[in-house]
Structures are given as structure tokens and as C-alpha cells.
Fold:
Amino acid sequence: MNQLANFLRNDKTDLEAYTPTHVCGDFAEEVHNRAEQQGIEAAFVILAGVNHAINAFQTTDAGLIFVDCTGGYKIPYIRTSPSNPFGSPTSWDKIAYVQKGKPLGMISLDAAVNYYGFSYSGYERWKTDKMLFDAKVNSYKNQVRGRYSVPQNEYYQLQMQFQEISQLAGRIGPLWGEMGTVQSGQIFWEGHD
Structure:
């Protein structure tokens, strides 16, 4: 998995813009070709139900990994508010969580590698953490809404809450929206189809 993660971090396909003429299939093809040029076997994956193309990699230590490097705004990026400092992407490299009959989930590469893993249950743990994050942010906002000052003991309590929110935000990474339910998928390995 380390070789794949390093390849994805160094590859800049995800930083290209998504346009009407440069779509998810183009991103998947570029990642496939660049990986193969570096000796990393990659597959092109077409997902029905979400009408999306991604990549797959067979790793020796983590099994089959689905990856989405589509840049721009094809994948819904969620801002909890315009002024929210949490979750702003610096990379559009995402681990894709694919399971027939379930929503296509996305977690940033680093959050998946460091905290959640690559199975669909990891994505479900991420969703639980995301709900906790939302609850903590809403609670914090409700406590400070319309106030310009607070007593010192409450100030320290709010600082601790903000620290907890920041730590959780660091774990969950950028907030990617679900794209719909996966009905089926086809994996194309070059020379193996």
C-alpha cells in the first residue's frame, strides 16, 4: 500500500480541472497510464448506478483498493459553512468505497491510510465520525452564536471543544459527498480482460 500511496501523492492528475471535455473517465485513464509507466498494475473501473469511472489496484498488503483521482468538482465536496476551516482539500486523491447496493463513498487518501482502512466498514466508521463532527460543530456554534464575550471558565471550555473538533476534522479529512448507489461495476485489467 505504501508504494500506491506514494504514487498517488506524487501524481498530480487529481489537480487537473474537471470540465465537460475532461471527465472522470479521462482522469481514470491518466492515472492508469501513469501508474503502468511506473510499473504499478492498475485497472480502469466503470461503476453503473453512479455513472462514474475510477481505478483499482491490487496490493499485496491491503488487497483490492479502489481509487478516485477525479479533480475539480465532479465529486461533491461539502463545506459545512463558507467560513468553516475544516476539510478544505489540498488533494483530490480519494479512496473509493465500492459495494454493490450501497452508496459510493469517498475518503481522502491520507484519512483512509492513517485511520479508516480500505474496506466498506472503514467508510461506515468514517460516516459515524462525520456525524460526530457535525454534532460537535453544531453544539459549538449554538454555544457561541451571537455572543461577543463569555466568562473565562466558559471560554476555556469552548477552547477545549474547539480542540476536539479540530482533532476530529484532522482525522476525517475533506468531506466528500456520496454520489449515489452502486448497481454494478466492471474492472478492466490491461491484458487480463
User: Anything to note?
Assistant: Residues 70 and 116 are 21 Å apart (CA to CA). Helices lie at 2-10, 24-37, 109-116, 120-144, 152-172. DSSP finds five helices and six strands in the chain. The first strand starts at residue 43 and ends at 48.
